[in-house]
Amino acid sequence: MRLLIKNGRVIDPSSKTDDTLDLLIEKGKIVDIKAKIETKGAKVIDASNLVVTPGFIDMHTHLREPGQEDKETIATGALAAAKGGFTSIACMPNTDPVNDNRGVTEYILSEAKKNALVNIFPIASITKDQAGKELIDMADLADAGAIAFSDDGFPVEDSQVMRRALEYSRILNTPIIDHCEDKKLSNEGVMHEGYYSYFFGLKGIPASSEETMVARDIILAKKADVPIHIAHLSVKGAVNIIKEAKKKNVKVTTEVTPHHLFLTDSHLENYDTNLKVNPPLRSKEDAQALIKAVKEGVVDVFATDHAPHTLDEKDVEFDKAPFGINGLETAVSLFLDKLVTKNVISLQKFIGMISTAPALILGLENKGKICVGADADITILNLHKEIVVDVNTFKSKSKNNPFQGWKLRGIPAMTIVGGKIVYSSASLENFK
Amino acid sequence: MGKTIINLFYEPSTRTRSSFELAAKRLSADIVNFNKQTSSVVKGESFKDTILNLEAMNPDAIIIRHSASGAPHFATTFCQPKIINAGDGAHEHPTQALLDAFTIRQEKKSFKDLRVIIVGDILHSRVARSNIFLLKILGASVVLVGPPALLPVEFKKFGVEIDFNLDRAIKGADVVMMLRIQMERQTKNFFPSIREYRNLYSLTEKRFHQAKKNAIIMHPGPINRGVEISSDMADSAKSVILKQVENGIAVRMAVLYLLLGGKEREAID
């Protein structure tokens, strides 16, 4: 089927395009881009007053399948992604069993092919069972379709193992994504260590827990001369370390989540377990430093760290609740409202950080850009529509999102994956 | 007074549990003691379900002691009976602070210009926090003392002084409040050894001499004799430790009375 997207404001950061253009899609690819395309037999989407962008890529999600299908499945996570404006998502390996072998990667890809509305890219673990001891068969997993390696929430503690993983990744062209945390320093903490953790009597996770690991792994990656991607940056000290490393041309990239930008430790006053996340919500000073780092280009990517948990799991004492925020369906509106509408960053920069940059880091050659021949993964934005976040409308199986009730301006209006419309908000029709 | 109260203790307790029980009984309330070990909690029943089931029995108040900070606050979000915090994690222990203030007021004319030092494991102490907040409201100046790992400098933001040196901090103190040092802290290296802790932070007669002449010694209990406080100090005439326990009942009677519908005026009369 052919699809013609007409009169949209097309923004493509990779070619520095920002113009009113028509886009013709055929057989899953973009086949023509012009000021005016006349053609017969194509389904026409009127994108007047809307923004047409390369499909958004979330390089940090948790889909819970296999093993924890009560929280989320590949199908529901993909649906949530489609609604949230994402055309591709990369899923972390902390499933049950862990994605540390070809079987699990192949299972995820086959389920995705059958049931997922968006592209699913599995991330394999670095070590067997994420135990931090033995490397997995990284080449085999890369061949099976793993797009990156990460032990995510169980970061490799043994420096020698991490060094070997980084060295080996050199032959693979598959990056290592690093959740930087020294678990000994975190010491079973449940929130950011600082004034508020002492005030609320909750165990703290110090900033140093992240900073020391960021420093260590940048040093190791530099020596191995390989790229390293630092996940969900949360503290000012780590921003500074990454900034310095970038100056010295270390191949380090990093991402930031909406919750670390727009929420802080002081919000925990009601012991709301939907705010319990790792890395924890940090201080106001840290959040401000992250926003500055986004503006200065120290941060490369916007990601969600979508981490669904059931209502029952979160409906407990704060200490007992699992870490994680369900973020796929609120991220884009949060970034648009808090950063773009308020002129903190430009729309072009936002789109670059949520499509172009993750595509480059993950090596997705035909994604993250709008050009003839590129995959027809398109996100269409309505910058004017206002919504009030309501978790009850979530497509995700879980509802653990702390932005309930927030009024936000700017939404993903349509999501197109491989030339197929996978999501369309009612507002698109109303807008015309 | 025809009221029903449930004593819901998720942690072991001697003083607070007995004190609330006796306070309720002296007010002629019906009180039920809930013991975690002999309850369905051991079968895995959640905190929320436990409270909802107890609520179905229509109590007027539930007194909660829990190891998780914020647990009583969490309870208030889904149940109707009055919730009284009998100590939650490292957060607060409000009735302890009230009974401590009551005890200090018996011994001292006014809180103004009073130098109160709180010594020991500040980091994990709910008693310290509640005392800091209440004593600041009442006008006392509060000095926290302990080894650095148990006394984060961020506590200064609560409007208190901090000092790692007990010998220096105790000079001129009106109230010396010692906190229990939990033995398991040593295994996590918060300090090197009990011996070392005792040498630096134990209340001994020699140290107590540096305090004001009419200074008093307090401790929320349970005490570790010979660790944070020497036996002779704990049992000395300057010690009001058992007085605190005695006052606990009166203070908790007042708390129950006022929270369960009594009028302040009647209470005073």
Overview features:
heterodimer, A: 432 residues, alpha/beta, Urease, subunit C, domain 1, TIM Barrel, 2 domains, 8-stranded mixed β-sheet, 4-stranded parallel β-sheet, 23% strand, B: 269 residues, Rossmann fold, 5-stranded parallel β-sheet, 9 strands, 38% helix, 17% strand
Explain what you see.
The complex is a heterodimer of chains A (432) and B (269). Chain A has helices spanning 74-83, 102-115, 138-144, 159-169, 183-186, 195-200, 207-224, 236-247, 258-262, 284-296, 311-314, 331-341, 347-362, 426-431, and strands at 2-12, 17-26, 29-34, 43-46, 51-54, 56-61, 86-91, 119-124, 148-149, 176-178, 191-192, 204-205, 228-230, 252-256, 301-302, 378-388, 407-417, 420-424. Chain A is of the alpha/beta class. Chain A folds into 2 domains: 2-52 and 374-431, Urease, subunit C, domain 1 (Roll); 56-362, Alpha-Beta Barrel (TIM Barrel), CATH 3.20.20. In chain A, strands 1, 2, 3, 4, 5, 16, 17 and 18 form an 8-stranded mixed beta sheet that branches. A 4-stranded parallel beta sheet of chain A has the order 6-7-8-9. In chain A, strands 10-13-14-15 form a 4-stranded parallel beta sheet. In chain A, α4 packs across α7, α7 (207-224) runs parallel beside α8 (236-247) and α8 packs parallel to α10 (284-296). The model of chain A has no long low-confidence stretch (mean pLDDT 96). With 269 residues, chain B is an alpha/beta fold. Chain B folds into 2 domains: 4-89 and 248-268, Aspartate/ornithine carbamoyltransferase (Rossmann fold, 3-Layer(aba) Sandwich), CATH 3.40.50.1370; 94-238, Rossmann fold (3-Layer(aba) Sandwich), CATH 3.40.50. Helix content of chain B is 38%, strand content 17%. In chain B, strands 7-6-5-8-9 form a 5-stranded parallel beta sheet. In chain B, strands 2-1-3-4 form a 4-stranded parallel beta sheet. In chain B, α1 (15-26) crosses α11 (241-259).
